[in-house]
Amino acid sequence: MFLTISTTGTPENPATDLGFLLHKHPDNAQAFSTAYGTAHVFYPEASAERCTAALLLEVDPVALVRRGKGKGRGGAPDTALAQYVNDRPYAASSLLAVALSTVFKSALRGVCNALPDRAAAPLPLRVELPAVPARGGAELVRTLFEPLGWAHVDARPVPLDESFPEWGDSRYVRLVLQGELRLRDALRQLYVLLPVLDDAKHYWVAPDEVDKLLRAGEGWLADHPEQKLITSRYLARRWSLTRQAMDRLELMRLAEADDLRLEDVDNAVDETSDTEDRPVPLAVQRREAVLAELRAAGASRVLDLGCGQGQLVQALLQDVRFTEIVGMDVSVRALAVAARRLRLDRLGERQASRVSLVQGSLAYTDKRLTGYDAAVLSEVIEHLDPPRLPALEHAVFGTARPGTVLVTTPNVEYNVRWETLPAGRVRHADHRFEWTRAEFRTWAGSVAERHGYRVRFAPVGPDDPEVGPPTQMAVFERTAADGTAPDARRHTPADPAPRPRDEPQARTDATEEEGENA
Questions:
Q1: I need a surface site. Which of 73, 123, 177, 476 has the fewest CB within 10 A?
Q2: Could you tell me the pTM of the whole model?
Q3: Cα–Cα distance between 420 and 423 in angstroms, integer?
Q4: In terms of Cα–Cα distance, which of 448, 430, 437 is closest to 471?
Q5: Nearest 5 degrees, angle CA 235-CA 236-CA 241?
Q6: Which residues on adjacent β-strands are paired with residue 155?
Q7: What's the Rg (C-alpha) of the chain?
C-alpha cells in the first residue's frame, strides 16, 4: 500500500515544514513495525518549494492469517488459497488507516510544539493513493470527500486489464485529493474513510471503536451529509454501535450550534440520583428464557440450530454446566461473525474444546447432530418457506432426536402492539410467515405426536391478555417407551391444538427484527 502527502511552500514558510508537522525528518528513511508488517516513511522530494512525504506499508500476508482476520477479504472463511492471495497488501484499507494512526499519531492530534501556528493553519495539500477499494465506485468517493473542503477530488476507476478494455473497470480507484486543509483534518478523514470505502476491517469492531470514530470525526462528521453511511460502514454495520455513535454525533451537532459544551447539552440525567430502568430487549429475554429451560432440563450437550451470529452460543459458553456446544448455520458469513464474537482464535484450550461452529442446513438430515441432550431453534422456523418445514421436522425430530427441543417464533397477534410496524407487515423482510398462537400450537402438537415427544408452551416477553406474548416458545421433551417424559418433571399438558387454517403466505415487507427494536 502506498500513500503520498505533498505540499508547496515559500521562502518564509518552506514546504519542508511538513517534516515538523509529521514529526518525521525529510533526510531520514524510517521503518516502523506494525502488527501485520512494516511501515516505511521517506521523502521522494524535499525542498522549500515542494515537499512530499510517502508512506509505504508492506503487509505480511502470513501474519494476517495467523492473527485470525486474514481469512480472505474481511475475515470471511474463504478457501485456503484465498487466505494468502488477496488484495490486502496492495489496496488502501483499514490496514493503512491503522498504520497512519500509528506512524503519524502526533500529526493526527494536530500537535507540533516546533510550529504550532503551521499545525493550526490550512496547508496546500495533495494526497495520492494509487489503489483504493471503493464499494460504491468513484461516485461514492466523490460523495464522501467533496463535502470536506477538498477543491479537487479525482477518483479514476482502475481497469481490470488495460489490454482488455471490454472487461470493464475494477472496484478500485486511483484517488487524488487537492485543497487547502489542516494536515490533521486530512489525516483524520483518511483514517475514517479508507475503511468506509473498503466496507471492511481487518480486526474485530469493539465498542471502543465508537470513541475512535468520534475523535477522528471531530469537526466534520457531525455535519457530513453521508454521516449515517460513514458511521454504519466504519462500525462494520453493527446496529447497536451505529445507533450509539449517531446519538452522540447529534449531541455534538447541537452543542456546536448553540456554542455550548457537550456536557451542558447532555444533562438530562442526574447521575447522582436513581433513574428509571431501561426495558430489557426482547432478544435478551428470549435468550434468558431458553437458558432457563436448558438448565431445568439438565442439558449439558446443546445444539444451537440456526445460530446466526452466535449470541446464544456465547451465553452458553459462559455457563460451565454446558460442556459441549455446537452452533450450526447455513450462512458462512454468519458463522464468520460468530467466530469473531466468540474470539475462537483466542480461547484457551479448555474453552475451545467446549464449542464448535459448523455449516449445515436444517432441510437435510445430518449425522453430526445426533446424540445431544438438547437442541434450540430460536427464531428459525419463520425463515423457512412452509413447504420446507416437513424436512426440518424430519431432520431434527425424526433423525437427530435430542432429549429436549426448544422452538421460539414470533406471535403474529402481538404485531398490533408494535407502533412502528405497519399493519399487515411481518417483523423482518426475511420472514416467510408468522403464526398465531393457535397455528403454532397446532404445528407443534402434530410434530410431537408424530415423533414421540411431549410439548408444552411458554410465553417470552410481556404476556398481553388480549394478544399474548411477542414471542412464543414450545418445549418438546422426548418421551420414553411408556409414554412418560425422560426426566422427573411434571408439566401442565399442552392446550388442545386447534384445526390448522390455510398455510400462511410468505410475506416479505421489510421492517426491523422485533428483538432489535424491543
A1: 73
A2: 0.52
A3: 9
A4: 437
A5: 40
A6: 175
A7: 28
- The average pLDDT across 380-408 equals 95
Closest CA to 119 of 111, 130, 128, 129: 111
Q: Which stretches of 24-137 are assigned E, i.e. beta strand?
A: 30-34, 37-46, 50-59, 123-133
Distance of CA 146 to the CA centre of its chain: 27
Q: Render pLDDT for 33-80 as a digit per residue (tens, 0 to 9).
A: 887 789 999 999 999 999 999 999 988 777 666 655 433 334 444 445
Closest CA to 47 of 5, 10, 76, 85: 10
**Range with the largest mean pLDDT of 267-281, 353-367, 486-500:** 353-367
Over residues 192-235, the pLDDT tens digits come to: 999 999 888 877 778 888 889 988 988 888 889 999 999 999 99
Rounded CA-CA distance 35/58 in Å is 11
User: Which is it for strands 169-181 and 123-133: parallel, antiparallel or unpaired?
Assistant: antiparallel
Q: Alpha carbon 508 to chain centroid distance?
A: 23
Mean pLDDT score of the chain: 83
Question: Which residue's C-alpha cell is 475494477?
Answer: 170
- The Cα 93–Cα 74 span in angstroms is 10
Separation between Cα atoms, residue 309 and residue 290, nearest integer Å: 17
CA distance 219 to 392: 53
* Distance (Å, whole) CA 487 – CA 478: 9
Q: Do residues 154 and 203 lie in contact, with contact meaning Cβ atoms separated by under 8 Å? A: no
Q: Residue 502 corresponds to which cell in the numbers above?
A: 390455510
> For residues 484 and 57, what is the distance between their CA atoms, to the nearest angstrom?
67
* Longest Cα–Cα distance in the chain: 98
Instruction: For the sheet with 37-46, list strands across it.
Output: 30-34, 37-46, 50-59, 2-8, 123-133, 169-181, 152-159
The reported pLDDT for the residue numbered 93 is 84
**Are the C-beta atoms of residues 56 and 39 closer than 8 Å to each other?**
yes
